[in-house]
Input
Amino acid sequence: KNEVEQSPQNLTAQEGEFITINCSYSVGISALHWLQQHPGGGIVSLFMLSSGKKKHGRLIATINIQEKHSSLHITASHPRDSAVYICAVLGNRSQGNLIFGKGTKLSVKP
Amino acid sequence: DTGVSQNPRHKITKRGQNVTFRCDPISEHNRLYWYRQTLGQGPEFLTYFQNEAQLEKSRLLSDRFSAERPKGSFSTLEIQRTEQGDSAMYLCASSQSRTGSNQPQHFGDGTRLSIL
Output
């Protein structure tokens, strides 16, 4: 079993829909990252959080440390949101290397 | 801030050849990471440096792989005697370590390696 599990693996939505991507992890962590990867490979860091909730524009990330679960929400989705969204955790015994989920491929149709 | 730069963007080579990739981190970042990503999978950790010291290596980093960061700035990742299974995207990231706080990693666009 992977240490970081994401669901769903693939997600297709209509423009304007509210989207939720989930991430569960099995190790103790000091921080959790949500990353966005577009075709071609480049990765952009969206959020880094260790508790509570963060919001940036139409994106919201939440984490529940006790339940070892995080969610990424996209409100009013747009075709330009189409990308792979990756959850990655920094283990609390780690010196810095991230443990990644396999990613959720999101496609938003106009 | 010019971001993390990786070169080349794409590399195609025949099996058995040696390849070298370069990563230039954000200038003030003292930590540099290498990851490998195969198709349909999330990235996997290979190794990381703090300044010029290589502090951790994954078991994925076989003896054909070597990484250096000689002056604590740019880093190179060399793969000797490449194999088909080495085909992947090689990602570099950098961050600034601060005592008591986690800092986000900034990623380059990656080098895509294809072994013929």
Remarks:
- Chain A touches chain B at residues 4, 30-31, 33, 35, 40-45, 48, 50, 86, 88, 90, 95-103 (CB under 8 Å).
